[in-house]
Structure formats: structure tokens, C-alpha cells
Amino acid sequence: MRHETRICILTLGIAIAVIAASPKAALASDGECGAPDAPCTLEGGEYYVALPEAPDEPPAVIWLHGYGRSGKAMIQNSAYVDPFIRRGYAVIMPSGQPSINNKDLDWGVADGYDLARDDVAFIDAVRADVVERFGIDPSRILIAGFSRGGSMVWDIACQAPELAKGFAAAAGAFWEPMTTECDAPVHLFHVHGFKDRMVPFEGRQLTWEGVEFNQGNVMKGVDVWRRENACLGSAENSFGDDDSMQKDWMDCEAGSIRLKVTKGGHGVPEGWRDAVLDWFEALP
């Protein structure tokens, strides 16, 4: 094992028991806090936690999974958990809610169709609970996500920017009908694959379960943030060794925007998590 972590997943009303486990999320024995079948439960949902061997009040990443996944599945996925744990971050994995097919888990993204749960309020409740229960540093929280989870990150950043120091999304942005203004400036890091056909960079129309949806154009969404952050000047442009293209809007009245476009498809690029933490730790 490269390192040890503590996985702690609790139900309301029971004491927190900390266990040592491998990065592959070895489970606690029956009755102990830590098994993925014993989530932290809140009104309307649940979440899972992986804790690093770190001092009190660690920083945290609240990770929002893609469509059809779950917090339970993601907390056991070392590819998602390990890069954050290695850097001393707690990892919080909430589960989405039933989609319009009432089967797959999804997020209540602002896309013209209302699911049962208000997911901005739910993530607010998750954040408050982990701060109280696990001693997370509330000033060092990153909310990040992939695909529909990434779109939910954009909505949370827009509607409740106070919930995190920074927001990072991969392959998911605003849907239509797109907002034209948000509550306050934010620090946002967005990455998108140029060849993404599931969530095309330019957006698309699709029909799901008989309901029409429109994925938003990423650049149209970025312009919402440029106006909100008051950074309408030219971006600083750079290119990565992986042929990625990056635009940084740093000369803003408040907040900042980083947009990275890779040559890949729908996915989380290799090394993205460490790149996001480097960016997050450099924020003012």
C-alpha cells in the first residue's frame, strides 16, 4: 500500500469510530463506523467520507459523481479518492437523487426539469454536517464534480458561492435555460474534452425519457462568469505538453476563471486532480 487512510462513514446519532484502511477502502467490521453500507444520512439523502491521516481541521473535497453513479460507489474508487487523500484532503462523496426514470441517480441541475430534491440546499446541508462531525476546515473546501456532477458544481457556484473557496468541474457546465447572472464572483476551474460527444463543448439538444433537454454551450457559460467576476479582458493563454489549451482570467475584480480544453473525450483527464489541488492551494 502506498499510504493508509481512514474511511469513516457514519449514521446520525452514533459515535464516530476511526479505522485504518488501505486506499482501496477496506471496510470496517460489523458495527463499526466505516462500511459503505452505513452512510451518513441527512434529510433527503446520504454521503460518504474518507479521512486522511492529517492534523485536525483538514481541507476537504466534496465530489459530485456523474449520472448513474453513487457516493457509495465513488468512495470505493481509489482512482478518485487517492489523489486527494495523498494531499491531506478529506473526501466527501454525496449521492445524487433518483432521476426522471426513478432509477438512476442524478443531480437536480437547473435544466428546466425539477427533480424532487433541492440539491443546492442538500449540498449545503452536507457541508454543514461534515464541518461539525469531522472537524473539516470550512475555509478550505473545494466542491468538484464530473459530467452531471460538474454541472451541479456550476449551479452551486452560481446559487450558493459561499459554500466553497473554489469550484472545479470536468465535462459538465450550465444547461439551458441558462442563467444570465449569479449571486457572487467565484474561483472556477473547468476542464472539457474537445472530442466530448456526451457533453459537447458547444452544447446540444437531447431527449431523455420523453423530455427535451439542452446542454449549454461552455463558452456561453464562461461568459456568465466573466461578467460576474468582472474579468472581461483577454485571457492569459498557455499550452500543455499533452496538447491541451488553457485560458486564465486572473485580472478580475473578484474571483478567477481557468478553462482547460483537452484533446480527449468525455472523462476526467489524467493528472487533473493534482492540477486542481495545485490551483486551489494557490488561490488568494
TrEMBL record:
GO MF terms, alphabetically ordered: hydrolase activity
InterPro entries membership: AB_hydrolase_fold (IPR029058), Plant_Biomass_Hydrol_Est (IPR050955), PLipase/COase/thioEstase (IPR003140)
Domain of life: Bacteria
Keywords carried by this UniProt record: Hydrolase, Signal
Ranges for domain Phospholipase/carboxylesterase/thioesterase: 57-207
Residues annotated as signal peptide: 1-28
Pfam family, one: Abhydrolase_2
Keyword hit for Signal: yes
Protein name: Putative hydrolase
Organism: Ruegeria denitrificans
